[in-house]
């Protein structure tokens, strides 16, 4: 899995952002329940979760656009929540760009610089320089005199990023920035954003509901559900060792079977194998990825499966089978079917890396 | 297979003449007869005794005083109402709170009451037998039958206009741009001035235009509070009435022609704004 | 090992000046809320609420029977009847007229259409006194149309008919502007479907178009009605103002004020408000009923 960043234990990596115990209610709706997490300096942290998980609310708390009911936020040691929005020096990129429709691209980007106090305001020439440099950075040279209505969605988002970067923010906050764009543009911008982050090195918090995006871009991923933090870790970590069934299911395709763990052995129906390390004895739910199975002929070892359909799906093969009364879609790698697998035949399958959670 | 011999397509038997021309003609008649004729009559009767008489009546001191008073009252009412409109629209469109519907119903109030009632209420408060009547008399202050009364009556009748143009537009625009400006370090005032105002300037102008037209042309409400003191508390519309009741036809229509001219200019500017800046006006203004 | 934080004890909650119980407003970081709401509320209180309270309270000075006596006095009762009656007639007349104009403007293209469209707002932009004397000049026995009408025995100015004409004049824009946008958006497909199913033009209009614009038409009628009831300047010249015959209710208010009968004037004003609200509420209810029926 890409984006690996060894999760450091206690190190001398400076902690840029510390969030502790943040809670926020909207009327009767609890958007955030006692959320705590940390981000290191220059880290790219993704807040991932389904809608209603509180990720956008948390981002807005960081920006200062919402006040939490309880909790603390420290940035570089400072009490962040005591600062009003204007003084936080946080660059924010909104899902629908929020570009100033009556200003040109150049004016949009320069805005953060032009509203500074006289003592801190750069000269006109400096501002012009900065804007030109940023336009180059986001690859929009020549578009400085255009208005937002004359730009495509992808271009608008890049202007929004340039505008946020112009104020040399301590932290960059991105609220589903690619949500309003189509798939192709999204992919291109993803590559480009990663590159940009490498070059600028700004601590970034990125909200998305797209797990592929989060796993692709982030140094670490924080998964939220119903206002609570479920798991925080590097992409390959959360993908390989999801903390709960929800995380497993959210991050990729999941196949599920009931089983039992007893004396270090995992048993599903009539198949037995070594239980994963640390598995609690008792009734369990077994999760595995549909593409992490081994196929064996019917007389071999493994779970009994009845194949009833196969289909070519791009680079992989989809194998629909019935296991223990459940319909499952398994995936075989490569263009050819595993030996012995054909519609109507019985085979045996073995989950290669099952993850086990206590049942109920 | 042989080609089928081409047969002319059969036409529907009854040829239905389009009724469009009839409707168009009817519309033109209605509009011309009902709407345009009064406008025509104003100028026709004002010039009935020739251009000389027309200009003479306009230069009458009372007429000039009336015009000045009209402009003065408008010059106070319109900016005040514009400030109210902007405040109300800002509060309603950028924030969440309970009671918005009540607020908006209150803002629409003047449209449901007669202008005469809009003048009556001020008499009830500040007239000789009004609630504050004796207090005002004791302090030698006059509101009714004086200019302040005219201003109050005009404000009551015209205050919704700017708010009604701004509120739907600003609600549609949301608060994202303002939030972005804040994160970029702008103060509240800077945000309003550089981000919000450019986005609402045409709707604001439109609202001010309508507000002004109504303020200058208001008759019923000011009639009640004015006292009709020639040269002192007669706005131009009231002056028209005074002259008309004096059988000074040319004078009355001459004064009316100025007001009609105001109406025409308002109409022209309004239409221009609708044609050229439809996207920046309150939704529902585009047609 | 997953890098997971256990929730530590909550450290120092953020000080909240608004205790949860009394919160009416969501904290918004956009500045200027208190200022803008403050200005709005103060303005409304001074300009609308206090004056309206004065209106609501004053009639009780003469007690309930005083109010009833005022309102049932023949002159007042007649004026109320004329105001509301003629206004209703005018608003209802504006329905087909307004529909005609709106239809022609939205459905057909012809030279001068845009000009005509702009002119629809003229009664709205023209000061009422100007409209008043102009209409009188036209419909007085000495005026062009007045003389014409006299020939066929109709008295236009200085009669209820004159009032009617003036109220139709000022009410027309309301109906047209209410119906226009709905007509424009009306689903052409539905109409064409009706055509292919064999409906002729008249049926199409009655069964598809009119139900579609029903609520908007009703809204326009009620706006025209509300405006007509209170109208003063456009009517006061052409009416003739004969007691019991052509006096309108607003004029009665002015007369009572001149007689220093503040309570009586307020009573009439309050009655006008009450009846208007009642009528508008009824029309609103009908609108909702119609809109609900139209929802498939």
* Largest beta sheet: strand ordering of chain A: 6-7-8-3-9-10
Structural class of chain A: alpha+beta
User: What radius of gyration of chain B results from the CA coordinates?
Assistant: 26 Å
Query: Could you say which overall geometry of chain A the principal axes of the C-alpha atoms support?
Result: elongated
**What can be said about the biggest beta sheet of chain B?**
none
Unreliable residue stretches of chain B: 11-15
- CATH architectural label of chain B: Orthogonal Bundle
Structure commentary:
- The complex is a heterotrimer of chains A (about 350), B (about 290) and C (about 300).
- Chain A is about 25% helix and about 35% strand.
- In chain A, helix 2 packs across helix 3, helix 2 packs parallel to helix 4 and helix 3 packs across helix 4.
- Chain B has a single domain, classed as Orthogonal Bundle (MetI-like fold).
- Chain B contains 13 helices and no strands.
- Chain C has about 300 residues and is an all-alpha fold.
- Chain C has a single domain, classed as MetI-like (MetI-like fold, Orthogonal Bundle).
- Chain C is built from 13 helices and no strands.
- In chain C, helix 2 packs across helix 13 and helix 9 packs antiparallel against helix 10.
- The longest helix of chain C is centred in the first third of the chain and has 34 residues.
- The radius of gyration of chain C is 27 Å and the shape is globular.
- The N terminus of chain C is likely disordered.
- Chains in contact: A-B, A-C, B-C.
- Chains B and C meet through helix 1, helix 3, helix 4, helix 5 and helix 7 of B and helix 1, helix 3, helix 4, helix 5 and helix 6 of C.
Keywords:
heterotrimer, A: 360 residues, alpha+beta, Rossmann fold, OB fold (Dihydrolipoamide Acetyltransferase, E2P), 2 domains, 6-stranded mixed beta sheet, 5-stranded antiparallel beta sheet, 8 helices, 20 strands, 24% helix, B: 287 residues, mainly alpha, MetI-like fold, 13 helices
Write a short abstract of this structure:
The complex is a heterotrimer of chains A (360), B (287) and C (296). Chain A is an alpha+beta fold and 360 residues long.
């Amino acid at each position: 899995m890409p984006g690996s960043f060894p999760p450091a234990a206690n190190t001398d990596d400076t902690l840029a952002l510390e969030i502790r115990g943040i809670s926020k209610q909207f009327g009767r709706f609890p958007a955030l329940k006692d959320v705590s997490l940390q981000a290191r300096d220059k880290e790219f942290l993704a807040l991932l979760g389904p809608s209603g998980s509180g990720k956008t609310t948390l981002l807005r708390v960081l920006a200062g656009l919402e006040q939490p009911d309880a909790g603390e936020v420290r940035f570089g040691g400072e009490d962040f929540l005591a600062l009003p929005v204007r003084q936080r020096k946080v660059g924010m990129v909104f899902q629908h760009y929020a570009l100033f429709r009556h200003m040109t691209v150049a004016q949009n980007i320069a805005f953060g610089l032009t509203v500074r106090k006289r003592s801190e305001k750069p000269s006109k020439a400096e501002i012009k320089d900065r804007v030109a440099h940023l336009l180059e950075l986001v690859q929009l040279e020549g578009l400085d005199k255009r208005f937002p209505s004359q730009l495509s969605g992808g271009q608008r988002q890049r202007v929004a990023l340039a505008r946020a970067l112009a104020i040399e923010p301590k932290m960059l906050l991105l609220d589903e920035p690619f949500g309003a764009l189509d798939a192709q543009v999204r992919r291109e911008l993803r590559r480009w954003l990663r590159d940009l982050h490498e070059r600028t090195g700004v601590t970034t918090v990125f909200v998305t509901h797209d797990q592929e995006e989060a796993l692709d871009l982030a140094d670490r991923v924080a998964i939220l559900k119903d206002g609570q933090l479920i798991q925080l870790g590097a992409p390959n970590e959360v993908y390989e060792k999801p903390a709960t069934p929800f995380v497993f299911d959210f991050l990729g395709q999941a196949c599920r079977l009931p089983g039992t763990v007893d004396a270090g052995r995992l048993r599903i129906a009539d198949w037995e194998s070594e239980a994963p390390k640390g598995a609690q004895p008792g009734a369990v739910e077994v999760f595995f990825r549909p593409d992490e199975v081994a196929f064996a002929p019917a007389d071999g070892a493994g779970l009994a499966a009845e194949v009833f359909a196969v289909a070519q799906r791009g680079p992989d093969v989809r194998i629909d089978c019935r296991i223990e009364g459940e319909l499952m879609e398994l995936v075989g790698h490569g263009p050819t079917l595993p030996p012995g697998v054909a519609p109507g035949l019985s085979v045996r399958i073995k989950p290669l890396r099952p993850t086990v959670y206590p049942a109920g | 297979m042989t080609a089928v011999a081409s047969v002319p397509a059969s036409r529907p038997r009854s040829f239905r003449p389009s009724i469009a021309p009839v409707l168009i003609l009817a519309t033109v008649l209605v509009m011309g007869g009902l709407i345009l004729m009064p406008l025509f009559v104003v100028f026709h009767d004002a010039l009935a005794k020739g251009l000389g008489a027309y200009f003479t009546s306009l230069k009458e001191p009372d007429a000039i005083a009336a015009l000045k008073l009209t402009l003065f009252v408008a010059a106070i009412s319109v900016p005040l109402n514009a400030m109210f409109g902007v405040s109300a629209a800002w509060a309603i469109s950028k924030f969440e709170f309970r009671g918005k519907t009540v607020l908006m119903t209150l803002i629409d109030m003047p449209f449901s009451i007669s202008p005469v009632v809009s003048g009556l209420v001020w008499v009830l408060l500040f007239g000789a037998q009004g609630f504050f009547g004796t207090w005002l008399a004791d302090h030698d202050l006059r509101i009714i039958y004086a200019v302040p009364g005219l201003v109050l009556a005009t404000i009551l009748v015209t205050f919704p206009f700017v708010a009604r143009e701004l509120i739907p537009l600003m609600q549609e625009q949301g608060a994202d741009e303002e939030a972005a400006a804040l994160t970029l370090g702008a103060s509240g005032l800077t945000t309003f001035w550089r981000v919000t105002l450019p986005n609402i300037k045409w709707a604001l102008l439109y609202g001010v235009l309508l507000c002004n037209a109504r303020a200058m042309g208001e008759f019923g409400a000011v009639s009640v509070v004015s006292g009709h003191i020639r040269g002192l508390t007669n706005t131009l519309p009231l002056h028209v009435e005074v002259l008309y009741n004096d059988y000074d036809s040319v004078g009355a229509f001459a004064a009316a022609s100025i007001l009609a001219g105001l109406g025409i200019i308002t109409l022209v500017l309004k239409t221009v704004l609708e044609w050229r800046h439809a996207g920046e006006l309150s939704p529902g203004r585009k047609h | 090992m997953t890098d997971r934080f256990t929730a530590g004890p909550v450290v120092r909650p953020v000080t909240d000046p608004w205790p949860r119980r009394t919160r009416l407003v969501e904290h918004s970081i956009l500045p200027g809320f208190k200022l803008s709401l403050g200005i709005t509320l103060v303005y409304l209180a001074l300009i609308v609420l206090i004056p309206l309270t004065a209106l609501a309270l004053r009639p009780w000075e003469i007690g309930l029977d005083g109010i009833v006596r005022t309102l049932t006095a023949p002159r007042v009762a007649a004026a109320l009847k004329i105001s509301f009656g003629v206004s209703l007639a005018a608003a209802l007349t504006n329905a087909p007229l307004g529909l005609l104009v709106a239809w022609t403007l939205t459905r057909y293209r012809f030279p001068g259409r845009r000009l005509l469209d702009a002119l629809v707002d003229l009664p709205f932009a023209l000061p009422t006194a100007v409209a008043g004397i102009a209409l009188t000049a036209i419909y007085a026995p000495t005026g062009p149309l007045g003389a014409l009408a006299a020939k066929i025995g109709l008295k236009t100015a200085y009669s209820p008919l004159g009032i009617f004409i003036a109220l139709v004049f000022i009410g027309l824009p309301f109906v047209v502007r209410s119906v226009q946008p709905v007509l424009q958006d009306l689903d052409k497909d539905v109409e064409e479907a009706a055509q292919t199913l064999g409906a002729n033009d008249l049926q199409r209009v009655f069964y598809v178009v009119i139900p579609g614009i029903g609520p908007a038409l009703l809204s326009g009628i009620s706006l025209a009605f509300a405006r007509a009831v209170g109208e003063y300047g456009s009517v006061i010249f052409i009416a003739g103002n004969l007691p019991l015959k052509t006096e309108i209710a607003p004029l009665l208010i002015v007369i009572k004020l001149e007689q220093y009968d503040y309570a009586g004037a307020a009573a009439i004003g309050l009655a006008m408000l009450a009846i208007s609200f009642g009528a508008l509420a009824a029309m609103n209810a009908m609108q909702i009923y119609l809109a609900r029926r139209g929802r498939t």
